[in-house]
Amino acid sequence: MVAVFALPACGQPEFTYVRDREGTTYFKVPASFTQLNANPIELYLTGDRPGSLAAATRAQRVWSTAFDQSAEPSVNHLLSSSDPFVYATVHKLTEQQRDAISLNRLRDFVLPVTDPMRELYEQQAMTTGRPPMFAKFELLSDDVLALENGARGVRVRFNYQIGADVQTFDQTAILDEKGATVSVMLIGCRATCYRDRGAEFDKIAGSFKLLRLPG
Fold it and tell me: Could you tell me which residues come within 8 angstroms of residue 213 by beta carbon, excluding any fewer than 6 positions away?
């Protein structure tokens, strides 16, 4: 279940407020966004088969949701849309993942961003005999986040050409103070959309925070 609630403003909700199922990660999006079932995104990103043991095991450790501002909302807009799309996920790390986590791993959590990961992606794409889906990478900004209580994170913004369009992605990834959980928000839309509405995306990304629970 995804905890979602809206606060009224003059009779109409201005924002949708969201927490993950553990109540530790919080953000808000304008109420004009439509919430979607993010399970198809998880299956796409992992390659797991629907109903498989791998998918069921992952679902126990991973929470996710998505919001689309398109008039025809679709999870397919994660990678290409003229309207803003928001994907958020929280991962409970395994012991092996805890040992391997780093700021670069946070940068590459959803899409390949660092040089080694992009090189690996291109090598894997070549083995298929087809051109890679993601091309002409452009890094726009890369900021290390100084967070409270020992948490750490990164916010990276970058462009990829996907088909005929250039898509801008704005990703915030946070590792909690225990090194046990990674929370990620990925905002995307076409580059022209991002240039026109960057201030709105800053507000959404700025609302993405960890919450400290009592006890």
Answer: 23, 24
Which tens digits make up the pLDDT trace of 160-171? 999 999 999 999
Within 8 A by CB and 6+ apart from 104, the residues are: 114, 116, 117
Say if CB 205 and CB 188 are below 8 A apart: no
Adjacent-strand bridge partners of 67: 35, 86
**If we measure between CA atoms, which residue out of 78, 52, 80 comes closest to residue 67?**
78
Report CA-CA distances (Å) from 198 to 37, 114, 191.
25, 23, 10
* pTM for this predicted structure: 0.91
How many other C-beta atoms lie within 10 A of the C-beta of residue 113?
A: 22
| Paired residues of 85 in beta bridges | 68, 188
